[in-house]
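Hi F.,

I've been meaning to write this up properly since the lab meeting, where we talked about keeping a consistent format for the predictions we share between groups. The idea is simple: the sequence comes first, exactly as it goes in, then the structure tokens exactly as they come out, then a line or two of notes. No screenshots and no reformatting. I'm using this chain as the first example so we have something concrete to point to.
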Amino acid sequence: MLHSHNPHQFPLKKLKQLAHSLCDSFNSRNNDADGYWALGVLYQLAQQRRSTNVCLDLYQCQIIPDSPELHPLLLCWFRKLEHTLQQFDIPSLLIKGAMIEVEFAVPLPQHSPANVAHLLDRFMQLPTSKACIIRCTLENVFGDVRVAERYSSCWPHNANRETRSIRRFSEGWLRE
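Output, unedited:
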């Protein structure tokens, strides 16, 4: 446990690991927005707003572009951040900012990194699929910033082609 707020004792390696952990979780098919795949729902939002990216600012509690119906997703990820900070033994008061940004319809790099290689097969099988980059940025109160990125593939949400998960009931989506 960190007992000091000395910047020389702040676990920057843990901050980087935390960013990667959040990035990986956000990329998961278990990342739901009202029972649908969150990446697809966010891609649909971006297209509706004529944007190429969506940003969840966890500490400012806002989604850009704004979408009130996705505020439960924002709250869910704030809670996941708080839980993960506890798991990594980092006091939340030492974190100044946390953002998860998804950039849609990005070109694959010419020299694909290892985490992109598996996407090439998926693109051949799913012609409607597009590459995206998930970026998680964390900043501590000392001004240190750590960024993690993951390439993935996704497609815009389409309720007519997708099956809704029953997890939405356990996550409070329909409780109001």
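Notes:
The longest strand covers residues 130-140.
The chain has one domain: 12-156.

If this format works for you, I'll send the rest the same way.

G.
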